[in-house]
Amino acid sequence: MIDSTWADIVIIGGGPAGLAAAVAAKKNGAGRILILERDRELGGILNQCIHNGFGLHTFKEELTGPEYAERFIRQVLELDIEYKLNTMVMEISRDKAVTAMNREEGLFEIRARAVILAMGCRERPRGALNIPGFRPAGIFSAGTAQRLVNMEGYLPGREVVILGSGDIGLIMARRMTLEGAKVKVVAELMPYSGGLKRNIVQCLDDYGIPLKLSHTVIDIKGKERLEGITLAEVDGRGKPIPGTEEFYSCDTLLLSVGLIPENELSGGMGVELNPVTSGPRVNESLETSIEGVFACGNVLHVHDLVDFVSEEAAAAGRNAAAYVREAREEEDREAKKRIRLTAGTGVRYTVPETVSVSRMDEHLTVRFRVGGVYKNCYVSVCFDSEKISRRRKTVVAPGEMEEIVLTKEQLEKYPDLEEINVRIEEA
């Protein structure tokens, strides 16, 4: 009889990252794998993303969110990977004891040899924005509105203003329009959009929805139900410019003002977090500061494409399986030698932040985001003080993730290397 109080690998989250990590871990020899998911079904956020555009990298075809999730759910079922739904993880200890609860079993504990953190991210709420005014009905995060429309069958309102041009907000501008609502404007605090260029074209331009950059909501009218909002242009410091106020009557305000990795569990167990990404600091194996605890997907850093989430999660699954298989404890001196990956001019962060040459695969993808819009520039990589690559880019922007690829063969030529710096250089 199998002892259900232990598992080789416990995966926290059954969304795209957790599913891909589970499949990769199983295919790489892991024994008992257990996925813990707080929702009523596997698939995570993909279940409410009924628009297409998913899977072009992973499956070489265009899928909707539920179709993309189904590809991985099917593999989980075929591989007999265990999962528990409607299960909330309460705590994870440093020695990888996972405390969770659900209605059937109450409070229970699973002891894991390795843990993969795949909790995804959450939307930044209104409370973080300091918008003055009352708290009337009709103000939703864009993701909540997406779930109401796509999964619950409710239309939140008829006259809509959207604050923030993140991808969810852009997609919901189109979705609300298709459902018969009038989207009056999308306002963005920054002088550039936070979403993918293709979403601006397909979700706003194609439907004649205006995008106002360097604008924000400065007032909300209505007590019981939202009656309207006031927009104003902002200066370079984000302060409203007097005399630029515009009133829009509306019954719904959708907020698409950023995503935050869901890392309360990570922080609670003592994982070191990066203040820029709000996700764990990881090495080339996507292993956190706690040995045998790995992180992937939007809990690590916010991605723009789910295909990249799956790719990253598969790497975490393979590495977690290897960790369990080898029962890795102390490694040799060479493996302990770590090279720092640092964000230089124009770059906000890199994932991973350290790399051990002896432990890395033949190729390592380093992903990063820039801090502004740069045109006709170069992405440069320096090994200590030596510039080893310089790739020209027509434009880079915060809304789209960038990447470089390091090879093991390349790094082995620099045995004394201490730092790899990624930076943006003007042309």
Offer a few descriptive terms.
FAD/NAD(P)-binding domain, 427 residues, Immunoglobulin-like, five-stranded parallel beta sheet, alpha/beta, 21% helix, seven-stranded mixed beta sheet, single chain
Residues in helix, %: 10-25%
**Global outline:** globular
Note poorly predicted spans: 329-334
The number of domains:
3
Mean pLDDT: 93
In summary, what is this structure?
This protein is α/β, with parallel strands linked by helices and 427 residues long. It folds into three domains: 1-122 and 259-329, FAD/NAD(P)-binding domain (3-Layer(bba) Sandwich), CATH 3.50.50; 125-257, FAD/NAD(P)-binding domain (3-Layer(bba) Sandwich); 335-427, Immunoglobulin-like (Sandwich). It is 21% helix and 34% strand.
